[in-house]
Write a structure and sequence with these properties.
Radius of gyration: 16 Å
CATH superfamily: Phosphoglycerate mutase-like
CATH class: Alpha Beta
Order of helices and strands: EHEHEHEEHHEHHE
Strand content: 15-25%
Number of strands: 7
CATH topology: Rossmann fold
Structural class: alpha/beta
Shape: globular
Number of helices: 7
Length: 186
């Protein structure tokens, strides 16, 4: 069997609009972000969803709550779905992050973590998801680093390529988490 996954990034935050790389700071959604979160819920309600898993950071929780808070679908917070911890650099300008990201694939940010650390915690999350949600359909709300970890773990994409690629938003990414090593795009 398998788990069907739709991954969505948290909606637009005030920090996104200001050009701030929030990292492990909570952040909050902007007015436009709240509207997009509502649209996310309307778009996904047409699908079978057994659970919503979200990063425990404020901007992701706010996205999940606005999108699905009025439904009976359980919303489960999981810190393993967090953005990369930039440590002392949480809240740095996005332009600075873009120049430094490739240096932190295996080397942690000062007092933070590396992107490889993110992969390890997302891998642990996927192991639990496979065991506990077999045959189910779930939505995961996370961050750029969460998606890179999913692409790396499920499709074998090279982590440096993912970290260095420009971000292009879309209405969700589909994954199938199988109990064997075969995973496919949806």
């Amino acid at each position: 069997m398998s788990v069907d996954i739709v991954f969505e990034t948290h909606s637009i935050s005030v920090d996104n609009e200001r050009g701030v790389a929030t990292g492990w700071l909570d952040g909050c959604l902007s007015e436009r972000g709240r509207l997009l979160a509502k649209e996310l819920g309307e778009r996904r309600r047409r699908e079978r969803i057994d659970a919503i898993f979200t990063s425990d950071l404020g901007r992701a929780v706010e996205t999940a709550t606005i999108a699905f808070g009025d439904d009976s679908i359980p919303i489960i917070l999981d810190k393993r779905l967090r953005e990369c911890n930039y440590g002392m650099l949480n809240g740095m300008p996005t332009a600075q992050l873009e120049t430094e990201r490739s240096q932190h694939i295996d080397v942690p940010f000062p007092e933070g973590e590396s992107y490889r650390d993110v992969v390890m915690r997302v891998q642990e999350f996927l192991q639990d998801l496979s065991r506990d949600w077999d045959g189910k359909s779930v939505v995961i709300i996370g961050h750029s680093a969460t998606r890179w970890a999913l692409e790396h773990l499920l499709y074998g994409q090279a982590l440096p390529d993912l970290v260095n690629a420009p971000f292009t938003w879309q209405e969700g990414w589909h994954y199938t988490l199988g109990q064997s090593s075969s995973n496919s795009r949806g």
